Amino acid sequence: MFSVLLSLYIKEQPSFLKQSLDSLLSQTLLPNEIVLVKDGPLTSELDAVVSDFAKRCASLRVVALPQNQGLGRALNEGLKYCSYDLVARMDTDDIAKPNRFEKQIRIFNEYPEIDVCSSWVEEFIESPHYPVSVKKLPEKHVDIAVYAHSRNPVNHPVVMFRKKAVMEAGGYQHFPLFEDYYLWVRMLANGARFYNIQESLLYFRTSPDMFKRRGGLKYAMDEFRFQKVMFDMNMISSKQLLLNVMTRFPVRIAPNQIRSWLYKKALRK
């Protein structure tokens, strides 16, 4: 028994949302409920897609927030409405592969000590049939914990977790751009166990603008503050802090074309 949690806001494309929701109904193992948070007012086109989906999916629960709260706060609100301890995250512009939930539930059944289960994702721009890269992550908990010292160890849009373990770590907390990474490091510090399935279970929609959004002085400073938080938590050493800042800061302030090339060639497969 598991829930799916999504957060939707006004800038989403209706066609992307429809593809994402349709992929949830094409699963070999269907969710027991889908909780969709409307993070503030939506366009009439987006509302129409949600209304149409509600007619086809009796398990849909819509949570409407009067004002935009941001991803972390919206997900925290949505978690309150998730009836089951196992919760799968999904972004409203991505496409889940048909066997995604079946394979993740199998991991939780085989390894009951696991609290967080994610997988690889295939990134695409125009069509999921033509992925441009694969974002791979380590499999076992011990390697995931080490990986977290320098990079986000979980692909958030394809994660499934135990709600209890998330809440025990304080839930999502407002930390712009790093809400999910901050949650994982707090869960690791709290003793949660992680696992990454070694195959792609989701098509992740990307664009050239993604690399632009991950650059600039403001992003670099926000990332530095996050690294400092990890240091204060004793998650990383002073040496690791320095290494992370020295390797990441130049990438953030580099021209977008260079940053895009680094992501595609050095940080993806």
From TrEMBL:
**Which parts of the chain span the membrane according to its record?**
none
Question: Pfam families recorded for this chain?
Answer: Glycos_transf_2
Q: Where is the Glycosyltransferase 2-like domain?
A: 10-145
Domain of life, per lineage: Bacteria
- List UniProt keywords, sorted A-Z: Glycosyltransferase, Transferase
Q: Which CDD domains match?
A: GT2_AmsE_like
Is the Transferase keyword given for this protein?
Answer: yes
Q: Which residues form a coiled coil?
A: none
| GO MF annotation, one | glycosyltransferase activity
Q: What Gene3D superfamilies does the record tag this protein with?
A: Spore Coat Polysaccharide Biosynthesis Protein SpsA, Chain A
Q: Which family does it belong to?
A: Belongs to the glycosyltransferase 2 family.
Q: What is this protein called?
A: Glycosyltransferase
